[in-house]
């Protein structure tokens, strides 16, 4: 019932009074802007002052500059005259679209017109807004300089005395950073509730920890993990760092709506999905609309279902000088940094391009002096043209090598971490399209002419492939056709290990070392230092095995494999129920297997293993989400120094072993001390309690056995007439068991 | 040692009790039958039938003459253990969730459910044992000598402290309170467990100076009876239904598992249907005993500390007699203490 005037209470009156409060300041702040029509106008200051006669000339001269960023005409330039018939040194310009006006401000502001004059370009609206009377103080007041504040060292964690590694742990709604203490409980550095909304991510060299919020991305760093940078991309969902931590790309499915008063985002970013940010300045470099958001139309004009987001949408070259994006089936756009301009002003047209990958390192190629970045891409069969894989050199955009392929259904590109090889995994179908097989086409990038080696002994489709980091061996998993009733039993897979033949200094042809059949494995996780590899079954309902393999086992070698640069040995197999993720620490000393609540809610938590598969600790954690090791920047030691360290490993390890033993001793003593204290406290408490009880008993005048049943005796003895019944209890005990085989 | 499997119940177990001598085990289940077993070999001695609903709780008088049971048929019954006849029935407006004899057997408390406009109560009856020759056991008080009404949060479990000095009750909201059994006044109330996580079990130490509570909040606590101070906390990874303190060795046994309603969706491994042994003083988990394929609803320890029995949602009672290593196990500091 709506209140009538009669039933209004005293309070209601007050409410009405409150409405009379002066809101003018708020009104001003949220005033609806009606100046939309002026969006296309800019004001240009800093022009030379000329008499009326030469005004025309000046306008023409100016127009040449103005038309570089948009379209405008002589009529649209208004240069007023003063009483003396001289120009005032400024002009009003109308562009065709607001975007052009914005472009003019971005690109012409601060640009010299001639030796003496520099253009100052502003929006007409901004002049209105900021230049209005009273908004500007008459007297100049120098801005206050912030006192110098020492920033935290962003790499302080590298200075740990015992060279431990850090990791971030996201569980429930808390994110913590910890030191790994081997089998001892990890040491906490920081632990904050609601630190992130979606996930956390380290930057590639471990300098920053990124947290993702509906308001944007925040970077944290330093010893106390203080806030370092903010990137206000509303409703950001995915982020990607560039390899040298110079830039960050953010993506949101929702186009950005730039509101007035946004300090960082400008009109430029309106309606975009992707922003490339400069981490140093915290400013957006350039923003883009996602290619894959708009559902495409196929030949019949039907709307195709929305494709999955391609992430990373922008792929970085190893030296961070270029970033590229592919328009599926059409072109690759390569942008130069730091200005984010399109390389050579045009995208590279590649009809049908399906995927591309940058080389993860700058490759030194035989016979090529100029070290350029390499990019590998492939196109499927179109009409009668074969499928094609090509290597392109950037920035020259020169095609270094191409290879044609037939009967291709899918291709995956795998670069070796140093860019020495790129393995093109080709899934081929037979002519009838009924059976599938996989070929590996391995490009030896470093060698002259980039020879291609083909490994085609694989019958079934390969579901996973992985190069040894900094090495020339690889592991792949192939699977047969899923057997009937695959829903019950997961498809069996086979794990194959490959190594090159020993042949002088250069690695020879790739040969199969061994194939392990009847596995269910689907994940390959190489140690970041190479040599060791974990092959595991993840995201499975029924198998959870992790196999720890050594590629350079120091024991006896199989005769058949003696000319291969490997000695394969299974070190250990462990199980981790419900395992979803496996991560090596950056030094290759530890492996963490984890079961995240993001995938399932059974026995979430993480287990720590050594590189050889010895489980150091199991940490069941409720609502566990994410475990990520903090990456390390590359070492500063030269090759020689590293060799030196390796040579003296024995001595170093002696020192560390000593330390370990000492630490264990300390810990043990602490535990024993603690237990002693707890036990003596408990005994004392019990004694005191007994005394109190005895006192009370005396006070009540109760006998010692007050708690024993009063009538028990009578009941027991005076029971039934049958007298004492004897309950016989026969206890059998097996003293010894012997087994004899007869016959 | 292989456990003895007592499979006489058709539905899930609700409570198990050893008698004071430890030679008998009494078990109640939702199948309305109360069973008595020999603890040594698992042979069934007999049943006590008469209840019309699920039997929630059982207790044995300290002299093993009378057996008290509480049921969902809104009654508390007293039985002659030897003959199996029901000697007394008290009616209540709601179900009875817990019965407990006082240490000297002279009193019996019963915890009644809050339902249908009735508040949860704790009632106390005076118990008589006839002429001492098991005659006239049916001569019992009609009315309770005391009635405590829990108007804040209903009591779920209750028991007697040493000398019957206090009645200790665990509540639905996770708190523990201490009552004066003469006046019924609440003396103390402590939020021992997480708020709104029901206390499912409360069992006393042999000398009744402290007790252990098991709660839905996945922890069990050792609490002093005299001032309700929390002495120890045992953390598990699953909701707990029962906890028991072992005599002789300083252990506690916890039992629980994923709530019965969630069990069908997961494998047995997932349910965590294990009895967990913790060291009473150091709060460390020492070991687990598997076997049940449903949550453990109730655990009781032999008064001499030589065996324990667990009853599960799966309808089985498992009796484990401890082996030598169980008795031999000792922390280094304990051994030192002993040598002194």
UniProtKB/TrEMBL annotation, chain A:
Keywords: Cytoplasm, Initiation factor, Protein biosynthesis, Repeat, RNA-binding, WD repeat
Biased amino acid composition, Polar residues: 1-10
Localization in the cell: Cytoplasm
Entry-linked SUPFAM superfamilies: RNA-binding domain, RBD (SSF54928), Tricorn protease domain 2 (SSF69322)
Residue intervals of the RRM domain: 40-126
GO terms under biological process: formation of cytoplasmic translation initiation complex
Compositional bias segments (type: Basic and acidic residues): 707-716
Main location: cytoplasm
GO cellular component: a single term: eukaryotic 43S preinitiation complex
GO MF annotations, alphabetized: RNA binding; translation initiation factor activity; translation initiation factor binding
Residue segments, region Disordered: 1-21, 698-719
Complex and partners: Component of the eukaryotic translation initiation factor 3 (eIF-3) complex.
Function field: Component of the eukaryotic translation initiation factor 3 (eIF-3) complex, which is involved in protein synthesis and, together with other initiation factors, stimulates binding of mRNA and methionyl-tRNAi to the 40S ribosome. RNA-binding component of the eukaryotic translation initiation factor 3 (eIF-3) complex, which is involved in protein synthesis of a specialized repertoire of mRNAs and, together with other initiation factors, stimulates binding of mRNA and methionyl-tRNAi to the 40S ribosome. The eIF-3 complex specifically targets and initiates translation of a subset of mRNAs involved in cell proliferation.
Family statement drawn from the similarity comment of this UniProt entry: Belongs to the eIF-3 subunit B family.
Protein name listed in UniProt: Eukaryotic translation initiation factor 3 subunit B
Organism: Penicillium canariense
TrEMBL record, chain B:
SMART domains for this protein: WD40 (SM00320)
Main localization of the protein described in the UniProt heading: cytoplasm
Gene Ontology terms, MF aspect: RNA binding; translation initiation factor activity
GO BP term, example: formation of cytoplasmic translation initiation complex
Protein's cellular compartments: Cytoplasm
Family matches, as InterPro entries: eIF3i, WD40/YVTN_repeat-like_dom_sf, WD40_repeat_CS, WD40_repeat_dom_sf, WD40_rpt
Keyword Aminoacyl-tRNA synthetase included in the entry's annotation: no
Top-level lineage group: Eukaryota
GO cellular component entries: eukaryotic 43S preinitiation complex; eukaryotic 48S preinitiation complex; eukaryotic translation initiation factor 3 complex, eIF3m
Keywords of the record: Cytoplasm, Initiation factor, Protein biosynthesis, Repeat, WD repeat
Positions annotated as WD repeat: 6-37, 48-89, 289-319
HAMAP family given in the database record: eIF3i (MF_03008)
Function: Component of the eukaryotic translation initiation factor 3 (eIF-3) complex, which is involved in protein synthesis of a specialized repertoire of mRNAs and, together with other initiation factors, stimulates binding of mRNA and methionyl-tRNAi to the 40S ribosome. The eIF-3 complex specifically targets and initiates translation of a subset of mRNAs involved in cell proliferation.
Subunit note: Component of the eukaryotic translation initiation factor 3 (eIF-3) complex.
Family note: Belongs to the eIF-3 subunit I family.
Annotated protein name in UniProt: Eukaryotic translation initiation factor 3 subunit I
Gene assigned in the entry: TIF34
